[in-house]
Amino acid sequence: MRSDISLKQIAAASGLSVSTVSRVLREQPGTSAAARRAVAVALGTLGVRHGDEAARSGTVIAVVHAAPLAGDVDPFESLYLEIVERIFALGWVAVRIQTGPDLASAAEVLESFGVAGAVVLGGGSAGPEAQRLAAHGVPVIRVSNARHEGFAQLVLDSGEGIRTAVRHLIHLGHRRIGLVVPEDSAASTRVSAFRRAMADVLHIPATRDQAPVVVAGPGILAGSQAADELLEAQCSAAISCAPAITFGFLESTRRLRLAVPQDFSLLTVGDMPDAEVIHPPMSQVTFDWAALAEAALRELERLMRADGAGAAGSGAGGSGVGAAGAGGGRTPQLPDYRVSPELVLRASERAIGRR
């Protein structure tokens, strides 16, 4: 199998979108026969083996994350695409596993493909799948906004992201700032970081009234409702912690005939698909997704090597990290890194003017 093929190259060769190519490669239901033929021709043209032959001849890596709920936007899509491109570059095979009700379990994919390692993005329904993969002896590394005990992990420092956003907006003269967070495992950490930052920089108690917070459900409509709450609370700026929330804010301000950033400043923390091309281009506190993907796969490869050595040294019937530990061998040290974000300024926030 060639080691220099990316999803974008397959999409270009087949005339399909990257998302359609991804669905065909994952053999998801609903792809057309024409799309499958186009991908097969493109793979042959590019010299890539696909299907069972590829699974038998290459190292299969599962990329696991929770399927977005109806109307929601996947907050890890940029990282997923970077990880898959690097898996292809290593000459490995990527299998995307979206978790949730009525979706295939990672254990089923393990039996079909023989997964050598897994990268688990985020939490929610992806968490139990990480546990199941680990129970099967598959090396797992997690990348999410919260810490998960017992796993190698890269923790995205959402608290530092919130503090960076608060400091920037206060520097622009905003004093009435609101926060909207998705209802997930990192919500309390984000809210605490927001209130501490508001208190430390503005020297105020940062009560619920002085530092308004909305915990929003999934989907753009929930983001729009959260925006309405903060606008009613007379906020001049807001920090959004999910793509769907940000899109909801933009929808709400347009409906109310408010302009971003002229009438209201908006800063997003985390991933924001096409942040540079939407209107207005979205300023964000975000992460270097390419560097994160490289670090995750580097650590996973190290765990896979250690797992192989443990299995080889454990004798007949032993396999994986668990067998090595049970036999008195050295369990590989689990990496646990906290990753700090960076501020990328575009055009969705501005210094507050006189009212």
From TrEMBL:
Q: Which InterPro entries does the UniProt entry name for this protein?
A: HTH_LacI, LacI/GalR-like_sensor, Lambda_DNA-bd_dom_sf, Peripla_BP_I
User: GO: which molecular function terms?
Assistant: DNA-binding transcription factor activity; transcription cis-regulatory region binding
Annotated region Disordered: the residues are 309-341
For this protein, the record's Pfam families field holds:
LacI (PF00356), Peripla_BP_3 (PF13377)
Biased composition annotated in UniProt, kind: Gly residues: 310-330
Q: Which residues form the signal peptide?
A: none
Q: Kindly state which keywords UniProt assigns to this record, in alphabetical order.
A: DNA-binding, Transcription, Transcription regulation
Keyword Zinc-finger recorded: no
HTH lacI-type domain location: 4-70
Domain of life where this protein originates: Bacteria
Q: Which SMART domains match?
A: HTH_LACI (SM00354)
Protein name in the entry: LacI family transcriptional regulator
Q: What is the lineage of its organism?
A: Bacteria, Bacillati, Actinomycetota, Actinomycetes, Micrococcales
